Amino acid sequence: MLDPILIPSIKLLWEFNQVHNDLEPADLILVLGSNDLSVPAFAAQVFTEKFANKIVISGGVGANTKYINQTEAAVFEKIILDLGVPKVDIFLEDKSSNTGENIIFSYNLIKQLNLKADKIIIISKSYTEKRILMTFKKQWPNTKTKVIVTSPPQTFNELLLDPDILDAVNSITKNTQRLKIYPEKGFSNKLKIPTKVWQAYEFLTRNSFDKYLVK
Q1: What is the DSSP letter of 53?
Q2: Is the dihedral of CA 46, 48, 51, 53 positive or negative?
Q3: What is the pLDDT of residues 52-87, one digit of tens each?
């Protein structure tokens, strides 16, 4: 159970890590693999609502999915197929193991298949949106591509009711840290992090939410 004193800091980081792009018609949907099965379900919904007519699923075996016997892409594909998306409209990139590889390997696959990608929708977990956007801007070779970053709809109260809320908060601090340190490593574009956001991050990490931090 979360100590109530932590909740304002969690909410601040959760909101900061989102992009809040509105959906609009695009050429394809790029779904980034993870352990969150609401992501492929939402991707199928976006496809069904005709925001795009192709889906690229990117994900090999990531740090949080080593326990499964399939790639993230394969797991997500089954869910998307079960929700009615035709297999002919789904393409898999199943070698990537981190966000940078998701972006680079997906770009290479899209180019190899000669798929139109002037505008793409990227779907991921809510608290990874901003890091994905900054990584995309750094790693995607075509600077003219327009990107819409989104995630399954979720309120903060719904997040707090997640059975894995402690792990989610660890992931939120992880993504916040990487927004700061990854530009220095050349992995993503630089982003100004407001002082109050970084103070919230430090408060949470001092309270043991440091499981996934780069030491």
Answers
A1: S
A2: positive
A3: 999 999 999 866 555 467 899 999 999 999 999 999
For the stretch 141-184, pLDDT in tens is: 999 999 999 999 999 999 999 999 999 999 999 999 999 999 99
11/102 same-domain check: no
Domain that residue 175 falls in:
4-15+155-206
Say how many C-beta atoms besides its own lie within 10 A of residue 185's C-beta: 10
- Cβ atoms of 81 and 57 closer than 8 Å: no
Global pTM value: 0.95
Two tokens, residue 208: 């043991």
**Residue at 16: amino acid letter:** F
d(CA 173, CA 209) in angstroms, rounded, equals: 7
Residues 98 and 116 reside in one and the same domain:
yes
